[in-house]
Amino acid sequence: MNVLVTGAAGFIGFFLSKQLLENGHGVVGVDNLNDYYDVALKKGRLEILKGYKGFSFELLDISDREGVEKLFAANRFDVVVNLAAQAGVRYSIDNPHAYVDSNLVGFVNILEGCRQSRPAHLVYASSSSVYGENRKMPFSVADTVDHPVSLYAATKKSNELMAHAYAHLYSIPVTGLRFFTVYGPWGRPDMAYFKFTKAILAGKPIDVYNHGDMRRDFTYIDDIVKGVVKVMDLAPGTGGGQGDNSVTAPYRLYNIGNNEPVELGYFIEVLEKHLGKKAVKNMLPMQPGDVAATYADIDSLTRDTGFKPETSIDEGLGNFVRWYKQWARL
């Protein structure tokens, strides 16, 4: 199978590409290597992928319409996995155009590429951020998500609407995945656990928002990748059966999370244990665009694919801390 993975030098894209290559598939990886966070981290991931025989890389921004058209014209992809996006809730407050370019313009370019080339399945990244002000727990894909609290969330909800329209109009099998707080080795430096680790080891205080009254459905990267691979093999049909969310289009939407929210205070305690050092906490109010809790209902994903997360917070953070110390040469 020949797979296009956009955002291949990103956190999830790297691990997914690596797993697909180890499974014997060919992977064409696309990334623009932007400087939203340390490019050295992206290049480090990319160097590992370049060591695999079945991997090829294209330096490309998916908002480049002509470049994306040429990419699809030059390749025959069996499956397309679109993970390229401008990430981050807080960054979207001050940099809205980055989200429009990547998450909206870029995504419609990918959809158009799929319309022209007809892959067997398009899988794309959405986000738990789309749930916004929802209070019902756990979050279900059947819930209404019409009240985003950040532009990032609004672009991801827009992706879901755009994808359904293309699935309906052109019969492109499409599956969207709402990821829940993915963490692990080689992760994103803008994420709290990464920033906490760096600050604690440096003896600096950590910023704890909403005075610590936060819960997150932290999901370890290996579990995420297992779920994505399973979904890739299950292209949706029409008619609303077998977990499909649309009666008019070959379109499906899943939550992909740990299904077990963790209190932020406990999360910090586990991190302190693995670091062997206590955190100095700077308690702050809730940040604009943030939410107090996330919790994924994954019943339909488990029913349709057998997906079940296996990695505890203790194991996952232990793996991250060991990697971080090696990466930072500590």
Radius of gyration over C-alpha positions, nearest whole angstrom: 19 Å
Query: How many strands, what sense, and barrel or not for the largest sheet?
Result: 7 strands, parallel
Q: Averaged pLDDT, please? A: 93
The arrangement of helices and strands along the chain is EHEHEHEHHEHEEHEEEHEEHEHH
* Strand fraction: 15-25%
Low-pLDDT residue spans: none
Put simply, the count of helices is 11
Helix content: 40-55%
What is the terminal separation in angstroms?
A: 40 Å
Strand arrangement across the biggest beta sheet:
3-2-1-4-5-6-11
- Which overall shape is indicated by the principal axes computed on the Cα atoms? globular
Can you describe what's shown?
This protein is α/β, with parallel strands linked by helices and 330 residues long. The chain is built from eleven helices and 13 strands. The strands form four sheets. A seven-stranded parallel sheet has the order 3-2-1-4-5-6-11, with helices on both faces. Strand 1 (2-6), helix 1 (11-22) and strand 2 (26-31) form a beta-alpha-beta unit. Helix 1 (11-22) packs across helix 8 (221-232) and helix 5 (96-117) runs parallel beside helix 6. The longest helix has 22 residues, at 96-117. The chain is globular. It starts with a strand and ends with a helix. The model has no long low-confidence stretch (mean pLDDT 93).
